[in-house]
Design goal:
The longest helix has 20 residues, at 79-98. It contains 4 helices and 4 strands. With 155 residues, the chain is α+β, with helices and mostly antiparallel strands.
């Protein structure tokens, strides 16, 4: 009697026989499971191998050069894909705006809003973190800023 080892497929969960030549096999031989295996390998490889990541980026750039207008035509032929993509992008944008790990900058002035006024007066300033998230050390930092005036045409 020959006993065949079996294992559950990592992708589909079905039981499959483990071949003697591939004792560490984790995916069954179905097409979608092999595709999942390849995608998993590629995801890990992209995350860990800088050369591979660079080669993939170069191949993608070359393909884009050879196939200009491909995605524009694809979206035109597949409006349901384009609509779904728009909805997903709106959701990603909304989630990005809602993340609370970013400082709130709504009350901060823009650099171009100074209208020719002197940007800074020399002296000591208290820098206070602007955030909704409690940080371990929220003490203000005191800094000394001194303006250096250069003669015209010296820079």
């Amino acid at each position: 009697m020959v006993f065949v080892k079996r294992r559950k497929c990592k992708h589909c969960g079905r039981s499959f026989a483990i071949g003697a030549r591939h004792p560490n096999q984790k995916y069954c031989t179905q097409k979608q499971c092999q595709r999942a295996r390849k995608n998993d390998w590629q995801r890990r490889k992209l995350a860990s191998d800088e050369d591979y990541r660079g080669n993939q980026a170069a191949c993608k750039a070359n393909w884009s050069k050879r196939n200009t207008g491909y995605w524009k035509q694809y979206r035109k032929k597949n409006p349901e894909y384009a609509q779904r993509n728009r909805e997903k992008q709106r959701k990603r944008n909304f989630n990005r705006r809602q993340r609370s790990d970013r400082p709130i900058a709504s009350g901060l002035a823009k650099m171009d809003a100074k209208n020719g006024q002197r940007a800074l007066i020399s002296g000591y300033y208290k820098l206070i973190p602007v955030t909704d998230i409690p940080v371990a050390n929220m003490e203000p930092i005191i800094v000394s800023i001194h303006e250096t005036v250069y003669p015209e045409n010296s820079l």
